[in-house]
Amino acid sequence: xxxxxxxxxxxxxxxxxxxxxxxxxxxxxxxxxxxxxxxxxxxxxxxxxxxxxxxxxxxxxxxxxxxxxxxxxxxxxxxxxxxxx
Length: 85
What we know:
- The chain is 32% helix and 20% strand.
- The chain has helices spanning 11-19, 39-48, 64-71, and strands at residues 4-5, 24-28, 54-59, 76-79.
- The protein is globular, with a radius of gyration of 12 Å.
């Protein structure tokens, strides 16, 4: 079983959740979301989690080039739109 906690907006949140042994930590990179984080914050979140947790970036209809940039930081991408590339 895997456990994912999503909607993280602060590195401190991610650090606490990661210390509990959560497998996947999700951050939303969709500007219309109230839990939106930018790429700079995503990097800070990544630096705050332990090596046993993976960072999932949730995107909605993001451009392919931007997805590539996000994957330089996040371990996984969760597509939550109508992507078809």
